[in-house]
Amino acid sequence: MCAPSVLAAVWAGLTRRDAMHYLAGMYVAGRLVANAEASQPPPVRSPGPPPTDAPRRSLPADHIVDLTHTLSPRFPIWPGNEPIVLKVKSQLQRDGFYANRWDISEHHGTHLDAPAHAAADGATVEKIDPRHLVVPLAVVDIRERVARDPDTAVTIDDLQRWEKRHGPLPAGCALAVCSGWDAKAIDAKAFLGSDASGTLHFPGFSPRAVEFLLHERQVVGLIVDTLSIDIGPSRDFPVHKLWLGAGKWAVECAARLDQVPPVGATVFVGAPKVATASGGPIRLLALW
Ligand SMILES: [Zn+2]
């Protein structure tokens, strides 16, 4: 509902940029209604600003869980990638201050995939809207199934079962899958799950579940505790192409998702602000 008086009050509190976003939102909402009437599948929900009528959010911090692995040269990396090198550059006693030099891929350790990682016109990391980096966190737990099938993927059924128990996925949330895989990070072979043929094995998201999220829900980011949002055996990475292609971000190699409630936490994605970067190591924190 947008009575003129309500609209005027909202308008008075908006900056020009907010107003443009608001108008864009109204346009998208109009399109959604038109599409529903024509019984077309709804379009991909592109990440926009939080709705102007969203309830005020405060940020409790009674609990803070660090969802980040410590990055070191021992952390498992994607096969064929160059190793992580950390070198002491200055020593406190010798040089008056202590500093290292890092040689790290943008996709090592707990890290962010920016849309540009898999989309020619996708945003690079410094261009991601900060309002999409501090968002409600929903956690789907598939640990039981992973124990039987390491190549299992999050399905639409998993998401619908989660919503039955916890309510609709919060608008603008990040969706994490807790597979328990983070415990294997101390052993590169186990973390990659490589078999004799070199095929990797670990869980991820199914393309159908991601299509569902893109069209039916408002989720800004995906978080996995494995090396990839696609399952290990994937050769063509459909989930990367769909998700990053829609302008959304992903986090890979998260830790301790089992210590976070299924709903109710806020996740802070400490993405590096490096020009033209496709992603980068992050500090990932959950607060509630
Ligand atoms: Zn990555």
Question: Can you offer a commentary on this structure?
Answer:
This protein has 288 residues and is of the alpha/beta class. It has helices at 4-12, 16-37, 92-95, 143-148, 156-166, 188-192, 207-216, 238-245; strands at residues 64-66, 85-90, 99-103, 111-113, 134-141, 153-154, 173-178, 204-205, 219-224, 249-252, 263-270, 279-281, 283-287. The protein folds into two domains: 4-37; 111-287, Putative cyclase (Glucose Oxidase, domain 1, 3-Layer(bba) Sandwich), CATH 3.50.30.50. It is 26% helix and 21% strand. The strands form three sheets. A nine-stranded mixed sheet has the order 1-13-11-5-7-9-10-4-12, with helices on one face. Strands 2-3 form a two-stranded antiparallel sheet. Strands 6-8 form a two-stranded parallel ribbon. β9, α8 (238-245) and β10 (249-252) form a beta-alpha-beta unit. The longest helix is centred in the N-terminal third of the chain and has 22 residues, at 16-37. The structure holds zinc ion (ZN).
Layout of helices and strands, plus pairs?
Elements: H1 4-12, H2 16-37, E1 64-66, E2 85-90, H3 92-95, E3 99-103, E4 111-113, E5 134-141, H4 143-148, E6 153-154, H5 156-166, E7 173-178, H6 188-192, E8 204-205, H7 207-216, E9 219-224, H8 238-245, E10 249-252, E11 263-270, E12 279-281, E13 283-287
Parallel strand pairs: 5-7, 6-8, 7-9, 9-10
Antiparallel strand pairs: 1-13, 2-3, 4-10, 4-12, 5-11, 11-13
Helix pairs in contact: 7-8
This protein binds zinc ion.
